[in-house]
Specification:
The chain is mostly helical. It has one domain. The chain has four helices and no strands. α1 runs parallel beside α3 and α2 runs antiparallel to α3.
Amino acid sequence: MIGTIRALLLVEAASFAIAALVHVGVLTTGYEHGQAGTAESLIAVVLVLGLAATRIRAASVRAIALAAQGIALAGTLVGVFTIAIGVGPRTVPDIVYHVAIVAVLVAGLIVASRARGQPLTPPTRMPSMK
């Protein structure tokens, strides 16, 4: 379960980094939007820091994943709101991306929340007393 959580954090962070690169005009042109690029960069950083924290504090993977993905989801919902009111970019790729990443973030939150009963580290065997 921990591997799945970490993989989701990595995929989410990479996704936001790619979206940010699109919005600052590095990967393609025609979709530039500085504020969206900044927001996506910040969300990517939060997710990368969350991923790093799961390596540093392995006993807290669940809590770290819930916090990082929760912050990412809140930021993404701000993006959805800006699209809805016409402030943010309103292209079809932006709308599709936001719908997809919200679904991935929600799935990540579900996976992390269900990890409650999972051991955080593999069990170790006690040496036999012979």
